[in-house]
Amino acid sequence: MRARSQPGRSIAAHAILIAYTLIALFPVWVIVINSFKSRRAIFAQPLAIPTPETWDLVGYTTVLENGDFFGYFLNSLTVTVASLFFVLLFGAMAAFALSEYRFRGNMLVGLYLALGIMIPIRLGTVAILQMMVAAGLVNTLTALILVYTAQGLPLAVFILSEFMRNVSDDLKNAGRMDGLSEYAIFFRLVLPLVRPAMATVAVFTMIPIWNDLWFPLILAPSEDTKTITLGSQVFIGQFVTNWNAVLAALSLAIVPVLILYLIFSRQLIRGITAGAVK
Amino acid sequence: MTARRPIRWHIAVFLAPAVLVYTAIMIVPLIGTLNLSLYRATETGPQFVGLGNFRTLFGDALWSDAFWNALGNNVWFFIIHMLVQNPIGILLAALLSSPRLRLAAFYRTAIFVPTVLSFVIVGFVWKLILSPLWGIAPSMLGAVGLKGLFAPWLGQEGSALTALALVSVWQFVGIPMMLIYAALLSIPDEVMEAAEMDGITGWSRFWKVQLPLILPSIGIISILTFVGNFNAFDLIYVAQGALAGPDFATDILGTFLYRTFFGFQLQIGDPNMGAAIATAMFLIILAGVCVYLFGIQTRLRRYQF
Amino acid sequence: MTTPLRLAILASTILAGAAHAQEPVTLTIESWRNDDLAIWNDTIIPAYEASHPNVQIEFAPTAPAEYNAALNSKLQAGSAGDLITCRPFDASLELYNNGQLSDLTDLAAMANFSDVAKAAWQTDDAAHTFCVPMASVIHGFIYNKTAFDELGLQEPKTVDEFFQVLDKIKEDGTYIPMAMGTNDQWEAATMGYQNIGPNYWKGEEGRLALIAGTQKLTDPQWVAPYEQLARWKDYLGDGFEAQTYPDSQNLFTLGRAAIYPAGSWEIAGFRAQIADSFEMAAFPPPVPAAGDTCYISDHTDIGIGMNAATQHPEEAREFLEWVGSPEFAALYSNALPGFFSLNSTPVEQTDPLAQEFVSWREECQPTIRSTYQILSRGTPNLENETWNASANVIRGSETPQDAAARLQQGLDSWYKPAQQ
């Protein structure tokens, strides 16, 4: 019943998509191929793929001798996953309360929570740091998780409450008729329906957390708690003229994110399309 | 709805975790910071000056010139995103959502890749590619006979900001693409089929049927872009440093704030003036969000199904 | 509202404090010298720990651009390390005035340093010293000697000769005459303006006159360095506007550029990158006319002080005494050729290029960077403005006169030398 395939249009679509895919992937490609080449070859022919003459792993050996990239990666993963979990759980709960119930102060609480979208949390750095020092949380991943949870909540509440307003009342009222508690309605009926929105929020929340440089630098700069973004920044700072090492460090920072993303992207798309299946 | 029950504890339970974490970790420290904008450091300790810091910020040419320059640059940064990032995102999403497109999953995944990269990587990579010395951009332009078009874009006042805005577009185009893609997929099949029955297909179906239906998503994307752009900092900082060269041509509010609040090199941080700038930024963003919430969103609502 | 939170915080702090009491003492050093991480870990720290088994030293550097902001936040919150690497002059003075750096005037090792060496880390009346001076850096020009020999060029002594050399390199076309970019701005100011400037403003004489208000940045001797910088433009590589500091370093070490306006701190890195591919040498900034006294920027750049809030003041002071000793001076300057110890005991330099730089101290008058002492205390900040102006002048987007006038105007807006 859908559109008959129109070869001309389809080719044009592929042409545009391929062109954009190349633009998107080209810089990553340049970094990765050059990380395997000798210093002279990097400068002489930056676009050539490594050949046996130009093949050189010196960058990788330098990097692996000087930093625990696997440890950094685990730290980043722990922080991101834990923060994401809390943002989604707390955010969805609050969004549900705001979109579902009429109560005094509803609008006010909504605006209060939305304020956080507008100010960079970085401005509160000194007070946050003082709090973490007092709580003995400096150089722990917990400090980062707390900050990122607070940072992610406003946007999560904002997006999720938009979507939750569209969940049909009939369904919820039918649930209430069946004697479901409000908690059961939220967890069993509403949450599954807003999965696409949850996936959207997850992406929005995950990226800035994974890529943040500032709070790891201030709150958890120790060797044991360094995230991969901080680890690669320190590394780049240290070896800035040593392009072999820098390119290798960048490749090592890119690859785990890509793998994580490839795993996650299936969930993301499944989440998005699940909402579209009628 | 459920308005008759006396105390609905579940509302408190639903709200409590978010409100508590958010208040303790975000609002309390931020209020502390904004409060600073009303004080000035003196020999004898902080002194309350009311709106004095704002008078300096807008009245003293040394400060106000820098502020308006940063604000102007920031507006241009936002315009580029609205004119380039969002249309490209919509186009890509429209193409991806066309039925029976082969390799859709591959394209979708690949185009989103830059979004997951950190600013450290993005800034460094593009500086390398656009570097006149390493020669990737010049030699690629040379390969198509356009070498004459190459210029050290990041180093020239006229082009540096636009170049960086386009790098930012490159990085973030995946976000509007994904959101629009999700919105397009959620349009009911019946609507699309009805359009097809009426003989509306291809681009005209996109313009007449799909676009009106995804307007609310475009609205959300626009406001997120606005908020994101006016809080932007990292890319400029990574690529051009805190002095946002050349000659402050790439200085946006975020870099101006950072420099003032935390200081830079020999310049000692001025948390009071920094807080004043932060407050001004907050008000600008608040105004934008209000325009969206009360002006645009209510009108867009009508199209929702 | 926050009282229960505070109590919880308090309780956990006490518990955490009790748990730590028995462990051996670890001293953490805050620093912006992330380039030196390997040298501290492999050379300096083992040397100290060998004689002090009860102390462990951890060198924890932050990237230079973030150092000040990160350090200030950590100091305010109380999470900074025990030992603080000190920027010269006002940045550290501010920390001392805030009570964040301890007074080290009574440290025995302070006797090992001259008044000039200590000036960068003292109160204005020189009554209190708060950091142990570590090293100074000297500006000059490093060049590719192999290329000079190939083209039959001599080290230039005067500005005219300097431009003749640049013209010849440009004419020949094999090499980019000079490796410098304006993207990062500080290169233009530090390796450009502060490198060649002292020859015009006569080093300390001009610097102190500027502070006293008897000279202005619009005077000819202060505009002249900008006029020379404006002429540099023609000798820089294509697209120098977008060239970053690492780009410049790579251009020179890959042998593509002939001259590199330098600071002596480059020596170690350049040695490693160049290996044996060509020979490098250095000349001091050329003088305006033959026979003029030469002046060099011998800038007191790095010191180390003690966090006033440290839990281990005794161990930290003991470490600082060691940093002030001739033993440390020899260890440090030879591990990092180009960072010249400020210790009064002369250090035997082993690196020939470092020897060359340090030899200029005998023929030329040393001074420090003009913008560092006092003049960068207000807003607009003269040092940061100088970065911007130097880059603008080299790019040709501002004339030397306009730049000078703007800097003086900015300085006048907050600095009143008469009240000094």
Which features does this protein show?
heterotrimer, B: 305 residues, mainly alpha, MetI-like fold, two-stranded antiparallel sheet, 13 helices, C: 420 residues, alpha/beta, D-Maltodextrin-Binding Protein, domain 2, ten-stranded mixed β-sheet, globular
Give a short overview.
The complex is a heterotrimer of chains A (278), B (305) and C (420). Chain B is mostly helical and 305 residues long.
Protein model, in words:
- The complex is a heterotrimer of chains A (278), B (305) and C (420).
- With 278 residues, chain A is mainly α.
- Chain A folds into two domains: 7-61, no CATH class; 67-238, MetI-like fold.
- Chain A contains 13 helices and no strands.
- Chain A is globular, with a radius of gyration of 23 Å.
- With 305 residues, chain B is mainly alpha-helical.
- Helix content of chain B is 70%, strand content 4%.
- In chain B, helix 3 (61-96) packs across helix 8 and helix 5 (119-130) crosses helix 11.
- In chain B, the strands form two sheets. A two-stranded antiparallel ribbon of chain B has the order 1-2. A two-stranded antiparallel ribbon of chain B has the order 3-4.
- Chain C is α/β, with parallel strands linked by helices and 420 residues long.
- In chain C, 46% of the residues lie in helices and 15% in strands.
- Chain C is built from 18 helices and ten strands.
- Residues 1-5 and 7-22 of chain C have low confidence and may be disordered.
- The chains are: A mainly alpha (278), B mainly alpha (305), C alpha/beta (420).
Give the % helix of chain B. Answer: 55-70%
CATH homologous superfamily placement of chain B = MetI-like
Uncertain stretches of 5 or more adjacent residues of chain A: none
In which order are the strands of the major sheet of chain B placed?
A: 1-2
Can you tell me the overall shape of chain B? globular
Helix/strand layout:
The complex is a heterotrimer of chains A (about 280), B (about 300) and C (about 425).
Chain A lengths: L6 H28 L4 H6 L13 H9 L2 H32 L5 H13 L6 H10 L6 H24 L4 H9 L4 H12 L1 H17 L2 H6 L8 H11 L4 H34 L2
Chain B lengths: L8 H28 L2 E4 L2 E4 L3 H8 L1 H36 L7 H9 L6 H12 L5 H8 L16 H13 L1 H12 L3 H9 L4 H29 L3 H7 L12 H10 E2 L2 E2 L2 H31 L4
Antiparallel strand pairs in B: 1-2, 3-4
Helix pairs in contact in B: 1-13, 2-3, 3-7, 3-8, 3-10, 3-12, 5-11, 8-10, 10-13, 12-13
Chain C lengths: L2 H18 L4 E7 L5 H15 L3 E7 L2 H14 L5 E4 L3 H8 L17 H4 L12 E14 H6 L8 H14 L3 E3 L7 H11 L1 H4 L2 H9 L7 H13 L12 H9 L3 E7 L3 H8 L5 E4 L11 E12 L6 H11 L2 H10 L4 E2 L10 H12 L1 E3 L14 H14 L4 H13 L8
Parallel strand pairs in C: 1-2, 1-3, 5-6, 8-10
Antiparallel strand pairs in C: 3-8, 4-6, 4-7, 4-8, 4-9
